């Protein structure tokens, strides 16, 4: 099922609209889900699937943001993780918050991983369903 992303021209929020099929896109009259305004600017189209989220993560990981990160500095990693979650506009859950907090406190990333066995054990997005 395709998802179309729009920018509301009134409240300037990003609105994701799910359509039944690609042919709906031309006929659809998207309405802002936040303020009900009907002047929306189309951003991008993509397929709604967990894979799109993965692709976004890959893109983020490849982005210049990675250039700021100092892997030997937990606080630098925490900053980057926060930035990453901010760009995704999503709450990544308690574990994520705890890791960021501990990194900011200067904890060794390897110690954090060792104390949280769920972390890093998943190689697909599906595993997140278990949380
Ligand atoms: Zn709006």
Structure characterization notes:
There is one protein chain. It contains five helices and three strands, in the order E-E-H-E-H-H-H-H. It has a three-stranded antiparallel beta sheet, with no helix packed on it. Helix 3 runs antiparallel to helix 4. The two termini are 25 Å apart. A hairpin with a 5-residue loop joins strand 1 and strand 2. By secondary structure, the protein is α+β, with helices and mostly antiparallel strands. It binds zinc ion.
What is this structure's SSE topology?
Layout: E1 2-8, E2 14-18, H1 24-27, E3 40-47, H2 50-62, H3 74-88, H4 94-104, H5 109-115
Antiparallel strand pairs: 1-2, 1-3
Helix pairs in contact: 3-4
The protein binds zinc ion.
The low-confidence parts are none
- The helix-and-strand class reads alpha+beta
Q: Characterize the overall form.
A: elongated
| Strand segment tally | 3
What is the helix tally? 5
- What is the terminal-to-terminal distance? 25 Å
Bound molecules: zinc ion
Please tell me the overall pLDDT: 72
What's the short version?
With 131 residues, this protein is an alpha+beta fold. It is built from five helices and three strands.
List keywords for this structure.
3 strands, single chain, elongated, binds zinc ion, alpha+beta
């Amino acid at each position: 099922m395709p998802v179309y992303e729009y920018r509301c021209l009134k409240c300037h929020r990003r609105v994701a609209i799910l359509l039944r099929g690609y042919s709906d896109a031309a006929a659809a009259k998207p309405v802002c889900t936040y303020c009900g305004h009907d002047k929306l600017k189309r951003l991008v189209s993509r397929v709604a699937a967990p894979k799109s989220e993965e692709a976004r993560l890959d893109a983020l990981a490849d982005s210049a943001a990675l250039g700021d990160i100092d892997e030997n500095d937990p606080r630098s990693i925490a900053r980057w993780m926060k930035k990453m979650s901010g760009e995704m506009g999503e709450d990544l859950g308690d574990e994520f918050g705890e890791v960021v907090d501990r990194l900011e406190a200067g904890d060794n990333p390897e110690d954090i991983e060792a104390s949280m066995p769920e972390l890093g054990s998943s190689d697909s997005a599906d595993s997140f369903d278990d949380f």
